[in-house]
Each structure stands twice: as structure tokens, then as C-alpha cells.
Write a structure and sequence with these properties.
single chain, 379 residues, mainly alpha, two-stranded antiparallel ribbon
Length: 379
Amino acid sequence: MVKNSIVSSSPRSRFVFILWVLILSSFNLSAQDEIKIGQLKVNHNYAQNPQEKFKSSRAIYMEYYMSGVYNDSALFYAKQSKSEALDAKDKKQLITAYYDIGNVYKRTGHQDEARDHYQKGIDLATEIESKNQLGYLYQAMGSHKMIVGAYREAIDYFERALQISINEGLNKLAGKNYLDIANCLEKLGQLEEMRSTIEKAAPFLTNDKEGIIHPELPYFLARIEFLTDNFELAEQKALESITLAKKFNSRWNLYRTYNLLSKIGEKTHNFEMAYNYKIEAQRVHGFMREDLRANSVQSLDFKLELDALKAQNEKLDKVQWFWLPLGILTLMSVLLLTLYLKRQRKALKITKAIHEAQFRLVDRELSGHTSEKEIVQAK
């Protein structure tokens, strides 16, 4: 009876077969994304009017943009949706297109183009009084200003977004606005103001039923403690941030919290902790589908930082191995010195006893009462 070839194959063949299955699985996952985008493109071709075409183009844009990698394709479809919004003469759709184009430009480092498209969106949203869209555009413009280092201007835009968020009852967005302001205040070195701003964000990002409802809040709570040298409390808050980031599947917050824990390890001279958390950050970094994945310069900086930590950790190990034999040598020296002093003390007592005996012998000789036996004993 012939056995199944896979069952009876060598361990090496089975390994190759399993590897091949995994590779095929990964291709299937990728194919699923392509099928989804392909279906959206078919829907776009069958769309009957510019409004429907805009919706299809934006759905395709979102798929490419959220990949974090296909930025050229995302930009193409964002511009296509802009043309369709112009054809439809739909100002709200046009505002959305300006926002999307600005986001791609901001991600790819074209900050002037990002600013110009955000500004066009702001002008149009102000004209038609589209409050929600205006709030998101202020948020985006504030983010752009942060990237170029204009932190005061960024705070101004975030505060405008915050006012709209509060007025429109968008609590989660309001809390995010506060955290963005706190981020700017950190860059400006205003740590007390940063702490009070984080405290203002907390009520918007928590509720009685679920507790904290946004993964960024515990990260900022940990960060302010780190910046004010409260490392024990910072570590406690950071671990809470890790738990919540996993709950919300927020890889970005997981990544930067691991980095924060690594820095806490550095500050407290626990280089093993620093190195291990940096490795965890690198692991998350490899799975992230955001800007960090495509940004080779930032990836290089991250690798250099990791290598530096590794070297520091190895140096600490070498120092520990250096001190171990030195400590043993010191202990042995102390023991030998103790034994030597003990013998010296005993020898001193014997010498003293001899001197006393000799003194008594001389004294008795002078008095004429010394026997031959006493002289021998004294000697």
C-alpha cells in the first residue's frame, strides 16, 4: 500500500511544504485587498453621476491611504475625487478632497502643498459654515504646523478645533485636541501647562461605564511623569498604556509607549529593561501600517538608537564581569589580612610573655633566688 507522499516525506520536505502554504496564505491575504479595490473600481466605472463617482474614488483612496505604503495611488484617487466633486459642484465633497490631498502631502513630506490644500479646505468650509469639516481641517493644519516646528501656531489651530469639538458635542475629538495642545506645550518646555492640559483632556476621554476610552490618554499621563522625573509613577502609567493600547489594537500607541519604557530604563540605569523594551518597540514597528513603515530615515535613526542601547547593555555586562573577580580578590585579601593580623597578635602575646619571663628571671638573679630549672624555662 502506497502511503501519502506528504505524510511519508522527510522533515525537510514537510518544512518546505508548510512554508509554501504560509507563503500562499500571505498571497491570498494580499489578493483579498486587491479584490476589494478591484470591486471598488468596478463600482466607480458603473457610477451614474459625479457624486457616486466621488464616493467610489474616495473609498479607493482610503484603501490605499490606510495601507501606509501606496501613497502615490492614494494621491491619484484623492485628486480624482477632487475633479469629481468639482463636476458635481458639491462644496462639501470638495472640502473632503482638499483634506485628503493635504493628508497625503503631509505624510510624504510635502508640507507646503499640504498647507495650501488645508487652507483651501478651511476657506471653503468657513464660507459654507461646515463646522464639523472645519474642526477636522483645523486639527490637520495644527498637525502640519507641529511638523514644521511652528508650535504656537499649532496651538492656535488646535484651540480653534477644540472650540468646535466642544460646541458640536464631539467629546472624543475634544479630548484629542487637548492632547495635541499638550504635545505642543512639551515641545515648548512648558511642563506645568502640559500637565494641566492633560488633566483637562481626561473627562472627555473617560466615562463611568468603560473608564478610559482613548488609548492616547494613559500614554500622555505616563509621559508627563517621565518628563518631571517621576520614573516609578511613569513606569506604572506606561504599563497601563500598554494594556489599553492592546485593547484598542493601537499599534502607534503601543510603539511609542514601549519607546517611553525604554527611555525610563535608560534614565534609571536599567539598561536591560531599556534594551528589552526597545526590542518590543522594534517588533511593533515592523507590523505598523503607518508612516513609520515607509520612512527609511526614521527607521535608520531607530536602528542607530537600538544599536547604541545594545552597546550600552553589553558595556554594563562587561563592567559587571570586571567587578566580580575584583570583588572576589578584595574579599580574599581581607581574609588574608585578617589571618595575618591574628597571627601577629598571637606572636605579640608570646613575645610579651617571653619579655615578662626574662624580666622576672633577671629580677630573681639579682635577688639570688634563681634556680637552674627556671633559667632553662625562661630561655
